[in-house]
Sequence to fold (403 residues):
Amino acid sequence: MALDAADSLAPLRDEFFLNDGEIYLDGNSLGPLSRAASTRVNDVLNRQWAKDLVRGWNVDEWMALPTQLGNRVAPLIGAKPGEVVVADTLTILLAKLIGGALELRPDRHVILTDVANFHSDLYVVEAVASRAARPVTVRAIDRGALEEEISDDVALVMLTHVDFRSGEMLNLSGITAAVHDAGALMLWDFAHSTGAVPLDVEGANVDFAAGCGYKYLNGGPGAPAFAYVRTTWQGVVENPLPGWLGHARPFDFELTYEPATGMQAFVTSSPSIIALAALSGALEVFERTNMDELRAKSLALTDLFIDLVETRLPGVFDVVTPRAHERRGSQVALRHDEAYGVVQALIERRVIGDFRAPDICRFGFTPLYLRFVDVFDAVEKLVEVMDGDAFLDERFKIRNAVT
Ligand SMILES: *Cc1c(COP(=O)(O)O)cnc(C)c1O
Fold:
């Protein structure tokens, strides 16, 4: 295929373990294993842990991994070295950043978020707000009405940059500027952005952000997440979940907490070394390219998919994902009343996407390992499913636990 022959990213596909004959359009949910991740994990198991044992904390520099890996995530989001740490999981890091940020605007009583936000984000923001030292109300609004809803009582705005259902990408710098104009702080969730779209937290003046390690970054199931704190807030914003490894001198065993400098203060517990090894390997693949190159191919893949769906299956699906490039992430969402059955019938034909309630077929396009021929073949299978009635099969009336 000519498009694949001209693709400068094509060789990176060989860096991944992919099943023969399968088209994986779900790297936005769980990225695949890379050779580098496999090598790093094996090295940690069989050399570092097996041989070095407790010495590993020193000789293998395990303690430095959260900030070292943070420095390698930093270029993917446009941050400076020292502004990112890898730890915990995304929901936990959001809780820390929300709790810390609230204390920076003590006279304000409202947090604004998106009613269409990911449920975990909504649970955690509500929980942190309800336990704050002063009354704090969370208002989950229509994100389109942000400018009308924001007021001088808003302490923090928390939004997910690429909508997990629709794939819509929000205006990072425009929204952050509007939030700052109202005197509030901005926390972005980059779960569906990091490794998928170029980000410029410095240019956009973002205060805080957090993102996921196991989606587009390919760090493995339940991989550690990352947090970004702008340099100007470091040493000012506090980690509301202090633990020994965020202490300035953890091995002095002092009874009073004194935060470490920089992003180390956002570490609470012992780093998960095996999981960090997988993420470290996964990042090596990103270090062989850059986000602009990845973005160009991602848009070409999603453009092609949308065009083919519309020409081969006119009127069958409602394409929910915006056409405008500046408003599109790296996934395409198709609405259909029988979306669950459509996705299951495709999975049986080895095209792996996922279903998001109530009626979305979701397909992630990951330029590191997807080929243009995969897009043609996936649409061919979709046509096969929709032309018959495979998607109406009785078996698909009962949903799996993970959809
Ligand atoms: C995946 C995801 C999460 C959950 O992350 P965990 O690491 O499992 O806590 C939170 N928010 C958004 C928007 C997500 O897409």
Remarks:
- The chain has a mean pLDDT of 97.
- The CA atoms of residues 217 and 377 lie 25 Å apart.
- DSSP finds 13 helices and 13 strands in the chain.
